[in-house]
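Q&A log
Question type: sequence-to-structure
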Amino acid sequence: MHYQVFVPIDDASQVGEARRAAIQVANLANLDETALGKLAIVVTELATNIINHAKRGEILIGNIRGAQSVDVIALDSGPGMGSLERSMEDGFSSAGTAGQGLGAIARQSTSFEIYTRHGAGTAIIATVGVAAWQTYPFEIGIVCRPVRGEIECGDGWALRRFPNRSTFMLADGLGHGTSAYAAASEAMKVFGKAAEKGPTEVLEVAHAALRPTRGAAVAVADLNHETGIVRYAGVGNVAGAILTNGTSRSLVSHNGIVGAEMRKVQEFTYPWNPESMLVMNSDGIGTQWHLDKHLGLMNKSAQMIAAVLYRDFQRTRDDSTVMVVRQTKRAAP
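Response status: OK
Response body:
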């Protein structure tokens, strides 16, 4: 099971709230006492940095990459860092503080990544523990957030890995809250049983299984690592795109609701190469998202790209999910 917890940060009292949420996720991820102590320091410093430098932002705490690892993602739309190199130096501060935060975070983390643009905010990912996905033939980034005010998310995602291919699903239950969560959860159950058969078959089985629910928009992408082909089928308002060497190609979904009104399922194929990147998102992410003004972001990890897309293009009135998949792991500067 994968978890993500979201804590808004706009007041110093929420630093403690973020730390307590991190401990809950750490327990689910089976972190040992040493790692738990490191995680508490990382979350405290990241949340405090948001208050001191950006005034408001958000902390995402997740266990999505397997047992014994927790990702902490700090997002803000503040002033950004004028000099990343100087900001990493112990003792340097632009806000009159002791200037120990970023250095302490990096030292306590298994991996550490920053994306910042002067005047356009900062995103930081610090991982504590060892991610189980390190041996996968792809890297994946996920942000899956319920609309504010809800505990259960009406969006869901899943993946299956086979000997020569990897299959990914994104489901968006109609509306939000408990009923939407039930629909998305049923779609994920179907995917777990039918993913090996392919995208078309998953949607057809899901259509029957979701009839007792309010229904969902569902998309499935099947990436064959040997042939360099992506098979894709989608129904409803779930979007997909493949980005390769600066070009973007939208993936075709048909209108309808899986479990209610699904008139047509059609599978399309798209070329893929080691430089390609797959992005799938629910309609909680604006349809006009782009990376044109995000200089250097494509050199970052899939998780960083997903986090920045969520921060900059989320719609606050619905559940928001963005999934980023790339075949080759890039070293983040």
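Response note: The chain is about 25% helix and 30% strand.
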